[in-house]
Specification:
This protein is an alpha/beta fold. It is built from twelve helices and twelve strands. The protein has one domain: Aldolase class I (TIM Barrel), CATH 3.20.20. About 45% of the residues lie in helices and about 15% in strands. The strands form four sheets. The protein has a five-stranded parallel sheet. A three-stranded parallel sheet has the order 6-9-10. The longest helix is centred in the last third of the chain and has 21 residues.
């Protein structure tokens, strides 16, 4: 636990004690959302401005008030945007509403898979950074794309583990681990995690944080699931810091088989 306390998440020069980010959509009720946030203690909450604006004005206002009451830093997102111009417009509206420069950049290129638009993503990120935003871009696990996002000024990248809402967990471990080996910026796994074990696994690989929504919101017990994910993220990070043993193809006895009993070896070794 001491290692976790002394190892805060650092994003754009700001430190966070938690390495879990939580989405706010699709919960059974506002009360359950509130309880889940209390159980998880996330470092940030993400919300979609466009989807709020599309709903009832009174309900949207009540939802915004609830988010403010929870006193967790907000990470507005640009979900539902299909062009760089839509992204910029939505980000500016979110900055005014939530009074924050943080933005989760979502620029969708395919409505079926909700895969990011890999051709426009970097230029959209660059435009937001030039406007003073702290950009966390949602991307695929493509190394070239993620490296390009870093090149244009993103100080962290959010690759998916699997398509949004699928709950499949890391479907391409090789690509994710390659990203971790090749990029020297915080990497936050965003989308596709379904179980606490998935979150623990990517944290063991050295990823810096995870962002969850569907896996918690649609669980049978969202509050308990939020707590389970929070614990798994801490466990995975601590395991990464501790350093796991290398896998072996041959069994290795934990206690060597010798003629002399272990207790006798210990006694003999202590004699002058």
């Amino acid at each position: 636990m001491n290692a976790i306390v002394q190892d805060p998440l650092l994003l754009y020069g700001q430190t966070f004690s938690s390495r879990l980010m939580l989405g706010t959509a699709r919960y059974p009720s506002p009360e359950v959302l509130h309880q889940a946030v209390q159980a998880a203690q996330p470092c940030m909450l993400t919300a979609s401005l466009r989807r709020q604006s599309a709903g009832d004005a009174g309900a949207s206002q009540a939802f915004s008030s609830l988010l403010q009451q929870m006193q967790v830093p907000m990470l507005p997102n640009t979900a539902g945007c299909h062009s760089a111009q839509e992204v910029i417009h939505t980000a500016e509206m979110a900055r005014e509403l939530y009074q924050t420069d943080w933005i989760k950049l979502e620029l969708i290129g395919d409505d079926y898979s909700l895969q990011p638009d890999t051709l426009q993503l970097a230029s959209a990120a660059e435009a937001l950074i030039q406007r003073g935003f702290k950009v966390l871009p949602y991307s695929t696990d493509d190394l070239v794309l993620c490296r390009r996002l870093v090149d244009v000024g993103c100080q962290a990248v959010m690759p998916w583990a699997a398509p949004i809402g699928t709950g499949k967990g890391p479907i391409n471990p090789y690509a994710l681990r390659t990203l971790r080996e090749r990029l020297d910026v915080p990497l936050i796994v965003d989308a596709g995690l379904g179980l606490p074990s998935h979150a623990c696994q990517v944290m063991e690989w050295g990823f810096d944080a995870v962002l969850l929504n569907t896996a918690v919101a649609l669980a049978r017990d969202p509050v308990s699931m939020a707590q389970a994910f929070a614990q798994s993220v801490r466990a995975g990070r601590l395991a990464f810091l501790a350093g796991g043993i290398a896998a072996q193809d041959v069994a290795q006895p934990s206690t060597p088989l010798l003629d002399t009993p272990f207790w006798h070896q210990t006694v003999e070794s202590q004699r002058p």
